[in-house]
Amino acid sequence: MNVNGAEASLPDDPRVSLLDMLRDHLSLPGTKKGCNQGACGACTVLVDGERILSCLALAVQYEGRSITTIEGLGQPGQLHPIQKAFVQHDGFQCGYCTPGQICSAVGMLAEVERGVPSHVTGVLETVMLTREEMRERMSGNLCRCGAYNGIIDAIADELEAESHAEAAQ
Ligand code: FES
Ligand code: FES
User: Fold this and answer.
1) 10: which of 76, 144, 156, 163 lies 20 to 30 Å off by Cα?
2) Residues 6+ apart with CB under 8 A from 30
3) Environment class of residue 83 by beta-carbon count within 10 Å: exposed (0-12), middle (13-18) or buried (19+)?
4) Which residues approach ligand 2 with their CB closer than 6 A?
5) Distance CA 119, CA 139 (A)
6) What is the pLDDT of residues 10-42, one digit of tens each?
């Protein structure tokens, strides 16, 4: 498997979750273990650009796939635009849930770009990323301190920046 652009070998033990492999075998502690049962979103990573809960995934299932963790999205001094937007809007708060929130936001924006509808999408043919859509699509990621409004502002801001950049091309 490829993790953040580097080849990584699968664990010998087929019971190792993708989350444990990332944290314990590859020393990538950015992906957090919150509930370890699929309820909090802290362990969200991207697999070939799609978001998944790594605590519910066995590492061996992902042979040949490309995994991106928060460490692969951006680095200090070279933040991903979503990371910058989170900082700007106070969505970037505790280190525990923020990595999952950011990976989830990146995956979510890609889903919308592909036209994937959500539970609250009205017209299935044209997915508009309203605040209601964002809230619904980010609802798998919990934030116990309540930074939700900052998180939604950050995503909305980044979306606006992207559409301005597209319009300018
Ligand atoms: S640790 Fe995976 S969803 Fe909570
Ligand atoms: S930012 Fe982590 S609990 Fe709110």
Assistant:
1) 76
2) 69, 70, 71, 99
3) buried
4) 93-94, 96-98, 143-145, 147
5) 11
6) 999 999 999 999 999 999 999 999 999 999 999
d(CA 107, CA 38): 17
Looking up tokens 């950011």 gives: 102
Place of tokens 């990332």: 22
Q: How far is the CA of 125 from the centre of ligand 2 (A)?
A: 34
State how far the Cα of 52 lies from the Cα of 70, in Å rounded to an integer.
13
The string of pLDDT tens digits covering residues 103-150 is 999 999 999 999 999 999 988 878 888 999 999 999 999 988 888 999
For residues 47 and 39, give the distance between their C-alpha atoms in angstroms, rounded to a whole number.
19
Atom of ligand 1 nearest to the CA of 34: 1
CB count in 10 Å sphere of residue 90? 13
Q: What is residue 11's DSSP assignment?
A: P
By the 10 Å C-beta count (0-12 exposed, 13-18 middle, 19+ buried), 64 is classed as exposed
